[in-house]
Specification:
Keywords: NADP, Oxidoreductase. One of its GO terms (molecular function) is oxidoreductase activity. Residues 10-80 form the NADP-dependent oxidoreductase domain. By secondary structure, the chain is mainly alpha-helical. 56% of the residues lie in helices and 0% in strands. It has helices spanning 10-27, 31-40, 55-63, 71-81. It starts with 9 loop residues before the first helix and ends with a helix.
């Protein structure tokens, strides 16, 4: 049971996605690239394992490696990902 993904939280989740989308647009990347970049910037002991069945998605995932995040952007994304975001 994950409360964040229950129907009553749909609007809250949409608001969170809008914030992520705004940051991604400013960075010139997609929201999924931003999410992968955020995981990549978590440290050397953390890695993402994205799955894909389409070449265009694979290329998009690889593009996340070129997304750099400032400490301010990391803090904002961390806040969005937290239960208070």
């Amino acid at each position: 049971f994950l409360p964040r993904f229950q129907p009553e939280n749909l609007q809250h989740n949409a608001n969170l996605f809008e914030r992520v989308h705004e940051i991604a647009t400013k960075k010139g990347c997609t929201p999924s690239q931003l999410a992968l970049a955020w995981v990549h910037h978590q440290g050397k002991d953390v890695c993402s394992i994205p799955g894909t069945t389409k070449i265009e998605n694979l290329n998009q995932n690889i593009g996340a490696l070129s997304v750099t995040l400032t400490s301010e952007e990391m803090a904002e994304l961390e806040h969005i990902a937290s239960k208070d975001g």
